Amino acid sequence: MRLYSWNVNGIRAAAKKEHFFPFLENSRADVVCLQETKAEPGQLPPEILNPAGYLSYWSSSRARRGYSGVAIYSKNDPASVATELPDAKYAQEGRMLVAEYPSFFLVNAYFPNGQKDEDRLGFKMGYYAAFLAHAQKLRKTKPVVVCGDFNTSHREIDLARPKENENVSGFLPEEREWMTKFISEGYVDTFRRAKGDTVGDYTWWSYRAGARANNVGWRLDYFFVSEELAPKIKDAWIEPAVMGSDHCPVGLELDL
Question: Which bin fits 38, alpha (ψ -120 to 50), beta or left (φ > 0)?
C-alpha cells in the first residue's frame, strides 16, 4: 500500500500550480493525505473535490473559514471515516481525519503551530496530549498509521539550523520532548527507520531568503506507524522536488 502526506498550504492555490495534478497522476498512491487545505468542499471545483480514481473525505475548520483543514484521497472506500478528536476543545479547527482500513487506522493530522503566543503554544501541547491518548485508544482495536504536519522537528538533524532555533516554537524543548514521548509509546518514525540518520532531508522551507534553493529547511512532516506495523515498512521517503507549497510530500510504502 502506497501512501502520501502533503501540507499543500491552500488546496486551491496549490492546484493552480503546475505540480499538483501531475503529482497525483504520477504518484501511484493508494491514499493521499493533505493538510492545511484552507477550504470547504462546497468551495472546490470537481477536479479538486473528486480527482479521477479517488474517493475524497474532508474536514474543515468550524472556527474560521479558510483556515486549517485536512483531506484524504483514497482509491478504496475506508470502512469508516471520523473527524476530529473527542475533546470538543480540539475539535473546531478541521485538523484530523481517521480512516479505517482492513489492516490499520490511518490518522491524517495537521497539528497546531505554537509560534503566535504562549496561549497558542499551550493549545498545541494540549492537542498533542489529547492526540496521543486518542491514538492509543484506536490502537487497542488495530494498528495505527499517523501522517501529517507535526509542526515540530524532533532532533537536531531534522532542521538546518538547530542552534539558532532553540527558542522558536517548532524546536522548543517541550515540543521535542513530546515527540520523544510519542515514539517511546511505541510509534516508529518510518523515514528514519528506512533511511537512517541522514542529514539535509527536510519537508518545509520558509518562503524567505531563498531557503528552499539553499535547503535551509525543517522536517515537520512525518509518517509514523505503531510498532506492530514496523515489519511492514517497505520504504519511506521525502520528495523535495515536488513544488506547489512551502512543504513537500512525504511517502510511505507498506507491504501488507
Answer: left
How do residues 84-105 score in pLDDT, each as one tens digit?
999 999 999 999 999 999 999 9
Low-confidence ranges of the chain (pLDDT < 50): none
Is there a contact between 189 and 250 (Cβ–Cβ < 8 Å)?
no
Give dist(CA 60, CA 128) in Å, integer: 19
Angstrom distances, CA of residue 106 to CA of 14, 111, 148, 184, 249: 24, 15, 11, 20, 17
What are residue 222's DSSP bridge partners? 148
List of residues 6+ apart from 209 with CB closer than 8 A: 216
CATH of span 2-254:
3.60.10.10
Q: Return d(Cα 180, Cα 168) in angstroms, integer.
A: 18
Any catalytic annotation for residue 197?
A: no
Res 222: pLDDT: 98
pTM: 0.97
**Is the distance from CB of 59 to CB of 95 less than 8 angstroms?**
yes
Q: Are 246 and 184 in contact (CB under 8 A)?
A: no
Q: Which of 30, 77, 149, 197 is catalytic?
A: 149
CA–chain centroid gap for 170, Å, is 14
Contact by Cβ (8 Å): 81, 57: yes
Domain ranges of the chain: 2-254
What are the DSSP calls for 145-203, one per residue? EEEEE-S---SGGGBS-TGGGTTSTTS-HHHHHHHHHHHHTTEEEHHHHHH-S-SS--S
Specify whether the CB–CB gap between 245 and 38 falls below 8 A: no
